[in-house]
From TrEMBL:
Zn(2+) binds at residues 141, 144, 166, 177. InterPro entries: DHS-like_NAD/FAD-binding_dom, NAD-dep_sirtuin_deacylases, Sirtuin, Ssirtuin_cat_dom. GO terms for biological process: negative regulation of transcription by RNA polymerase II. This is protein acetyllysine N-acetyltransferase. The active site is at residue 133. It comes from the Eukaryota. The gene is LOC108037460. Belongs to the sirtuin family. Class IV subfamily. Residues 27-273 form the Deacetylase sirtuin-type domain. Its EC number is 2.3.1.286. Keywords: Metal-binding, NAD, Transferase, Zinc. One of its GO terms (cellular component) is nucleus. It is an enzyme of class 2 (transferase).
């Protein structure tokens, strides 16, 4: 449960703005804005989604800073009145829509602050995902740094020992890790973000033609600032959230509605069918150990694309300045 996750973290006073009022656009306005968002997606060659706790509330997992969020209620000495276990929770309409948007080529990457494992359960391939704050279903070896999918939510948070040996000895490729011990990979306050996840998230966000924030108030840094990284190069930035966010003034489009509603409408406008969740595509339901490590080679290959893009952007910017002198 997200309550148990929050309880497992160290004490931390600065949790940001809590309990800000939610606002809702009218049905007519939502329809108009969804058409605008669909048009922005169509015009963009590289779209990155930035997902927060708000995309998982319809799965029964409370958010943290909403009017009934975990930390909002914590200040009042209360607990959320809905709170399913992580193992009971299933991917939402939004999680499954993201799968379709990626498979159809409309979205290129996802940067997530969520630790609930619902992107993993939806069947989203690791190569399309940065998990900046960890994943409650991932066990990571402290020695070899490889990650493996657990069939159930791990017992601890804060990168603590699970007192289990590294699973790499079971690797079909013959690689082994002697004496390695598995730990959870869920960050506590003040932990450094995972290097490869952060690097991939930063690079994709920077070269994006369009960054879209879904279900997040963008208060936590550095994750909350990543959607702004494309603005200097003329990129666009859209937000779908019920509460005001830290970066509303910099957004080209803000939709105040449930994310499930927005992505359902956008997918329909794009002619994309949203699949149902299937256990056959859920790595947590498979019998054999599945690795979840970001391959270093993937990072190195994307580095080249990133450097080329940034170099070309600088040349184009310099040419424009010369032209208009």
């Amino acid at each position: 449960m997200s309550c148990n996750y929050a309880d497992g973290l160290s004490a931390y006073d600065d949790k940001g703005i809590l309990g800000a009022p939610e606002s809702f656009d009218s049905d007519e306005v939502v329809t108009e804005k969804c058409q605008e968002l669909a048009d922005l997606i169509k015009k963009s060659g590289h779209v990155v989604l930035h997902t927060g706790a708000g995309i998982s509330t319809s799965a029964g997992i409370p958010d943290f800073r909403g009017p009934k969020g975990v930390w909002t209620l914590e200040e009042k000495g209360e607990k959320p009145d809905f709170n399913v276990s992580f193992d009971e929770a299933r991917p939402t309409k939004t999680h499954m829509a993201i799968i379709s948007l990626i498979e159809s080529g409309y979205v290129q990457f996802v940067v997530s602050q969520n630790i609930d494992g619902l992107h993993l359960k939806s069947g989203l391939d690791r190569k399309y995902l940065s998990e900046l704050h960890g994943n409650i279903y991932i066990e990571q070896c402290k020695k070899c740094r490889r990650q493996f999918v657990s069939p159930s939510a791990v017992e601890t948070v804060g990168q603590k020992s699970l007192k289990r040996p590294c699973k790499s000895s079971m690797d079909s490729k013959g690689r082994s890790c002697r004496s390695g011990i598995l730990h959870d990979n869920v960050l506590d306050w003040e932990h450094d973000l995972p290097e490869n996840d952060l690097e991939m998230g930063l690079m994709h966000s920077t070269i994006a033609d369009l960054n879209i924030a879904l279900g997040t108030t963008l208060q936590i840094v550095p994750s909350g600032d990543l959607p702004l990284k494309n603005l200097k190069r003329g990129g666009k930035f859209a937000i779908c959230n019920l509460q005001p966010t830290k970066h509303d003034k910099k957004a080209n489009l803000i939709i105040s509605s449930y994310v499930d509603v927005v992505l359902s409408k956008v997918c329909k406008l794009l002619g994309v069918e949203i699949p149902e969740y299937s256990e056959s595509s859920d790595p947590t339901k498979q019998s054999k150990p599945i690795e979840w490590t970001i391959p270093t080679n993937n990072v190195n290959i994307f580095h080249k694309k990133y450097r080329t893009h940034v170099k070309d952007s600088k040349i184009e910017s310099k040419a424009k300045k010369t032209k208009y002198k």
